[in-house]
Each structure stands twice: as C-alpha cells, then as structure tokens.
Amino acid sequence: MDWLQQLINGISLGSIYALIALGYTMVYGIIKLINFAHGDVFMLGAFIGFFAITRWEMGFIPALIIAMVVCSIIGMIIERVAYKRLRNATRIAALTTAIGVSFLIEYTMIFFRGATPEAYPQVLPQTNINILGANINSQTIFILVVTIILMILLQFIVHKTKIGKAMRAVSHDADAARLMGINVDNTISATFAIGSALAGAAGVIFGSYYTRIDPLMGVLPGLKAFIAAVLGGIGSIPGAMVGGFILGIIETVVSAVGYSLWRDAAAFIILILILILRPAGIFGKNIREKV
Amino acid sequence: MKKSKAFWGYLAFALVIYAVVQGMLASGMLDLYYQNMLITICINVMLAVSLHIVIGVTGQFSIGHAGFMAVGAYISAICTMKLGLPFIVGIILAGIVAAVAGLLVGVPSLRLKGDYLAIATLGFAEIIRIVFLNVDYVGGAAGMVVNHATTWTYAFVGVVITIMVISNFTNSRHGRGCLAIREDEIAADAMGINTTYYKVVAFVIGSLFAGVAGALYAHNFYIIQPTAFNFLKSFEILIYIVLGGLGSLSGSVMAAIFLTAISQYLQAFPETRMIIYSVVLIIVMLYRPTGLMGTKELKDLFKVKNRGGSEA
C-alpha cells in the first residue's frame, strides 16, 4: 500500500501549500496584487513558532496561535506601509514593490540572525498508525486536522460574518462597496491579516513537519503556493485549497517515481501550462478585457 | 542625416572612452581589481539594456532575465571548454542559442499580460536553471570550471554593440511599434500593429544580448553554477532598469554603472547590500514609480537647459 502512503504525504504537503495559497488568492482577489512578500510572512511564522516553542517552552497549539497573531500584525503593517500608496499605481510598480518587500524581509532576517538553518524541536507525538497497510505518522494526521479546521474557520469568516461579507463586496467592486458605506481600507487590512495569519500557521506546521527552517525557506513554498493559487483560479478560495492539494500530490508523485530533482520544475511546468491553456484556473471565471 | 551624425558622434565618444581606459590599463594605472570591476560593470550594463528593451520599451514585465543569461553562460562554456572552439565563436553561439530560447519562451508566454506574464517568465527562468542543475554534462549543482577569457576589450565592444543595436531599434519603425504597445496595447492593436510580432521581436533581441552578457560573465568568474542565475540575479537586473527609469536607456545604463560600483564596495556585506537594494527599490516605487529618470534620456535633460539654442 505504498501509493496510499504517498497520497497521504502529498496531501499533507498540499495542505501547507493550500494554507499559503489562501493568503495569495485573498489578497489578489481584493487588490489585484501578487503579494510576493507572502512567502516571507510564512517564514516569519515558522521562526516565531520556533522561538515560542524553544524559548518560552510552549506547546504546538499555543505556538501556532502566537505565530498567527504576530503574522497577522506583520501583514497589516506591510499593507499599510508599502502597498497602500500603490492602490492606483501601475502593475509594474506594485509588483516591483512587492518583490522589494520580500527581499527586505529575507535579508533583514539574515542580517540579524545569519543564514544558518535551525532545527525545529519535536512537539508532536510520533507514533505510527497502520491504516490499510500504510504506515502513517500520527503527526501527519494531526497536521491535516489542524489545516482542515483552519480552512473551515476561514470559510465561516468569509461567508457568515460581517467582515467576510465586506471582503467579498470589496473584491467584487471596491468603488461600489465604498458607496455602500463599507470601510474599504479596513477591509483590505483585515484581508491581509487573515491571509498572513494562515501563512504564519503554515510556517509553524511546515517547521514541525520538515524540522528544518532557514531565512530563505519562504521563497520556494511561496512560489509553489502561488502556482497552487493560479492552478485553482486566482481570487477563488475553494480554488486555492484544491490547487494546493493537487500540487502537493503531483510533487509527491514526481518524487516517488524517482525524479525528485525535477520536482520544482514540475511545479513550474504546471504553472506555465495552466497559464497558457486556461489562465483563469480551475475555478476561475473568464473575464473579458473591456476597452 | 541628423540621425547618422549623432550616431557617429556617439561612436567617437565610445572610442575615446575605450582608448582612455585601455591606456590606463596598459600603463598599469588601473590594477586587476579595477579591471575586474570595469568588466562587471560592462556585463551589468549589457544585462540592464537588454532587459530595458523588454520592460522599458515594450512594456512587457519579464522577471526571468537571468534564465537567458544562464543559457548564454552555459552554451559559451560548453563551446570553449568541451568543444575547444574559440571564445568569439562561443559568444556568438551563446547569443544565438539564447535568442532561440527567448523565441521558445516568448511565443507562448507573451500572450499573457501583466502579472501573469511576470510569473510565467519567472517560471521559465526557474525551469532553465533546474535543467542545468540536473544535467551532469555541465557539472550539475557543482558547476562548471571555465577559463578566464573576458577582457576589457570584449566587454566594452559588447556594451557598444548592445547599446547601438537597441537604441537604433527603439528609434526605428519596429521600436515605435513597441512603444505603442507599451503605451496602450489595445489601441496599438486597433491601429493595425501586429502586437504579438513586435513583443516577440523585442523579447528575442533582449534574450540575445542577455545570452552574450552571460557568455562574458561565464568567462570572467572562472566557475559557473546554476545558483548564480536564480531569481536574485533577475531581481538585480530589474533594479537597474527600475531605478534608472522604466523606458530610459541612459537611465538604466547609469543605474547599472552606479549600483555595480556600490555593490563592489559592499561585496563583504552581501546582506547589507540586499537590504539597501530593496529599501531603495521600495522608496523609489512609492515616491517616484517611474524611476529616477522616468522615460527621459540623458540628452533630454541637456536640451531643456539650453532651450532655443542651436540644438533643435
């Protein structure tokens, strides 16, 4: 039952991608900006969780919550300082700024603590459970449960609360939403806060699953999560989840077949194929450009 | 008539610069450290100008320029180290193969716009890098040892040809087509400009010179590794043209010279250098989104000063 084990591995990798992709897709949906710094918020989340566990000797769940809170504050600061002025700027200016913010976070981190990787402590119980002949780590199941709870929570916020309704309204038409009395600035801040909190949670989960973190760890998962968001249809929340899981499973399969060095290339090939064949993604709507 | 006069003027100016620097090198006034710095500046100017034609002139946001540089670097290294061909043949082949790579990447991805195009070019550049990483013939992750062959003469001639071709292209019929696409793609299309054709042409020319710059780079640093051509390198090239002004050739040349000189002094502190780069980039984007020079050229600045003079 090797394939079942690979499938579970793929799903747990995919759940991390999905959590990061949600932040990308929410931000893109609301201000049409690819937030390149999102992968670095994920990295900061991993480090905050690491400090919470090693310095303050917290458990997994408190560390996760602290990382989410701090990351949501960082996300809001990034939005207020760097992106707010660029709402009406050209795409090139906005994208360049986002890349700049990303590098600023990475290299400030390296400047203060060096580029050496850190080993994440074991915080989750490690027992192997035998399901249908596949050896599954209890940690994997725990991570999957946490991810699914976070996604259900997000669905609840977006669809059942007032701020969620405001977010959907602003992403649909910011000017009309403003006319209806919605505070657009606060709504955008809230979107960044929620997206960054999910990225922070993904950071802690990534750290405890792969046990190795470093200041540049956010680059590749950030790009992959972006691919997942595009795959699912950028701007669509269920799309980001599905895209994340699909990408995680594909990557695991490519590794399992014996092409682990080509794993990253596979992700980028998927990106290019989806951009060329169906730019709107699986769940996206095709929007025609108006003159 | 006027145009060709200006052209010969610039060429004479370039010759004077070359002669002065060559004289200083020959007489030993500039030692190896400065010679290396001058070559690095030349390579970066070529990269900046070759990206300028894609982003600045045609308005297509590509953030995967290091990928074409990698193609040029590896192809030229294979030519000189594995096949034993002369360096000049390696440079030319590097340019040709990089241009073909540019064509292959450009035709499918230039149908995309804005953010999607940026991400697609980034993806292609990463794929190119991963291919070199996994091919044992070129050394894989350990890289490839390359002889030192780049001299100041090669580098400077490369810069002059790059600037000449690209500035002449910009002032030609093709260049005006590209500028029209930058200003408004739909309007350009409606005016009967074959937008796909011009975008691909600009992209291929940009890739060609990036490949040549890659060849010079490979033969200047003794070793080439796939990590040297990652996203960070594309970002560095992007900074040159963004800082200099999107659409300003002289601006991107000056920014490339200035930033390369600074980064040579900050070589011992790579983190500080990246922090400075990114802070500068963010501040410029927030307060002057068109870059320092905007779309103006250096000579436009002088024209304003002596308005009504004999210049017109």
From TrEMBL, chain A:
| GO CC annotation terms, alphabetical | plasma membrane
Keywords noted in UniProt = Amino-acid transport, Cell inner membrane, Cell membrane, Membrane, Transmembrane, Transmembrane helix, Transport
Keyword Cell membrane included in the entry's annotation? yes
GO BP annotations of the record are:
D-alanine transmembrane transport; L-alanine transport; L-isoleucine import across plasma membrane
| Membrane protein topology class | Multi-pass membrane protein
Q: Which InterPro entries match?
A: ABC_BtuC-like, ABC_transp_permease, BCAA_transport_permease
An example Gene Ontology molecular-function term: L-leucine transmembrane transporter activity
Can you tell me which residues the record assigns to a coiled coil?
none
Q: What sections of the protein cross the membrane?
A: 6-26, 33-53, 59-78, 90-112, 140-158, 188-210, 265-284
Q: Name one Pfam family in it.
A: BPD_transp_2
**Where does it mainly reside?**
membrane
Q: Where does the record place it?
A: Cell membrane
Q: Which domain of life is it from?
A: Bacteria
Q: Family, per the entry?
A: Belongs to the binding-protein-dependent transport system permease family. LivHM subfamily.
Protein name, per record: Branched-chain amino acid transport system permease protein
Automatic annotation (TrEMBL), chain B:
Which stretches are transmembrane? 7-26, 32-54, 61-78, 84-107, 114-132, 152-170, 197-217, 237-262, 274-290
User: From what organism does this protein derive?
Assistant: Ureibacillus thermosphaericus
Q: Entry's Pfam families?
A: BPD_transp_2
Indicate where this protein resides in the cell. Cell membrane
UniProt GO cellular component terms: plasma membrane
Q: What is its main location?
A: membrane
GO MF annotation terms = branched-chain amino acid transmembrane transporter activity
> What InterPro entries does the database record attribute to this sequence?
ABC_transp_permease, LivM-like
PANTHER family per record: HIGH-AFFINITY BRANCHED-CHAIN AMINO ACID TRANSPORT PROTEIN BRAE (PTHR30482:SF10), HIGH-AFFINITY BRANCHED-CHAIN AMINO ACID TRANSPORT SYSTEM PERMEASE (PTHR30482)
Q: How does it sit in the membrane?
A: Multi-pass membrane protein
Is the keyword Nuclease assigned to this protein?
Answer: no
Keyword annotations for this protein, in alphabetical order, are:
Cell membrane, Membrane, Transmembrane, Transmembrane helix
Name of the protein: Branched-chain amino acid transport system permease protein
